[in-house]
Amino acid sequence: MKIATYNVNGVNGRLKVLLRWLEEARPDVVALQELKGPDARFPVQEIERAGYGAVWHGQKSWNGVAILARDQEPLLTRKGLPGEPKDEQSRYIEAIVDGIVIGGLYLPNGNPYPGPKFDYKLRWLQRLQDYAAELLELDVPVILAGDFNVIPTELDVYKPERWRNDALFRAEVRESYRKLVGQGWADAVRELHPGERIYTFWDYFRNAYGRDAGLRLDHLLLSPGLAKRLTKAEVDKRVRGWEHTSDHAPVWIELSESAIKRRDD
């Protein structure tokens, strides 16, 4: 089973790129972020013609998340992250696909630091921690996939010293992410590539992609049972080089049907 996350940076404006990638990569499940459009403007007909059922949670001009499933309809279980009832930003959606709970998320950027946007980001992270702990208690297969807007470690950024006071890399943010993973989640990319410099985002400015001056912001966190089924975790970096593409690249994993034995087991 192939499961991906992709910040499309505008689902309608970059629909050709998304459809091309879906046709080439053929993931079974995709969590999308930054739809940048209200529910009524989600391109459901084009997505269905590509062979995918979809659920989505849009917002005019900003944010927006969706979950796609190949040859089936995802079973929607939640829109919005609990913990702050007046929060109307479209940043979390959840569905069941083939018995796996998929939580698709777009975590707040948080800049500028300090300020209310950074405070909101820390609250959102705490809400995510609280809800993620509840999901683990259910003892069912769960994947939290999306653009976390968190650079977890210095290995995940091209020049760490330049990012110390950025909301993506602030110590408080990284500590919150560390606590989240510490609940028992497996960061899929790091699980299989523990020491490799891997990026998922390259800015449009200063030839960042050409210089490989990137960041790792897009993550797939697996519940313990699913972590035992992880066989691959990769970034489709080439997609970032396509014309009129997102500044993020798709990140994907593959899961076996049952638990596999690793060398360090």
From TrEMBL:
PROSITE patterns assigned: AP_NUCLEASE_F1_1 (PS00726), AP_NUCLEASE_F1_4 (PS51435)
Pfam families attached to this UniProt entry: Exo_endo_phos
Top-rank EC class of the record's enzyme: hydrolase
GO biological process: DNA repair
Cofactor binding annotation: Probably binds two magnesium or manganese ions per subunit.
EC nos: 3.1.11.2
UniProt superkingdom: Bacteria
Domain Endonuclease/exonuclease/phosphatase: from-to ranges: 4-248
Molecular function GO labels: DNA binding; double-stranded DNA 3'-5' DNA exonuclease activity; endonuclease activity; metal ion binding
Cofactor section: Mg(2+); Mn(2+)
Active site: Y106, D147, H248
Alphabetical UniProt keywords: Hydrolase, Magnesium, Manganese, Metal-binding
Family stated for the protein in its record: Belongs to the DNA repair enzymes AP/ExoA family.
Name by which UniProt lists this protein: Exodeoxyribonuclease III
Gene behind this protein: xth
